[in-house]
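User: I'm curious whether this sequence folds into something compact or stays loose and floppy. Could you predict its structure so I can see for myself?
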Amino acid sequence: MKRVLLLVTLLSSTAAFAQACPPLLDRTITTLQGEKINLCQYAGKPILVVNTASKCGYTPQFEKLEEMYGKYKQDGLLVLGFPSNDFQQEFANNGEIAKFCKLTYKVKFPMSESSSVSGANANLFFKELTKITGNAPDWNFHKYLIETDGKTVHSFATRIEPDSDEILNKILRMLKDDK
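Assistant: Here's the prediction. I'll summarize afterward.
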């Protein structure tokens, strides 16, 4: 009887977990350092996804992204960078990207391995973000803000700073609603 009860409990927990993780977040990201991050662990939290490049005029946005992450990560905000050479402004390998981000901007928020973020070769996560919003990155530092429901996604053009009222007010609302 105990085994049956344990099995039922285990199956219920597994089903609840599967339901709690929206399809958009049901994926694992590999960081520049080779660490695996399952995005399901951030279900119910706001996630700011940004395609980045180390040699772009918008690269100083790293400072504001890191500042936001440092200030709000304890409240649940995840900032997630996706380096890409789609616009020919990124280093050739993950090691160079990681070194640049750490030494130049002291980036501590997770950064995925370099991948394509636009067009036919875009990684599957960005293909889904593009499908949901109707907006693919047309330059570096395009931002997507995933709402706590894991389904609603807002798209922000490169020129919109990470700490703009337009982005920050949405994040603060989600963090407030989460408490």
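Summary: The two ends are 39 Å apart (CA to CA). Strands lie at 28-30, 36-38, 47-52, 78-83, 143-146, 153-156.
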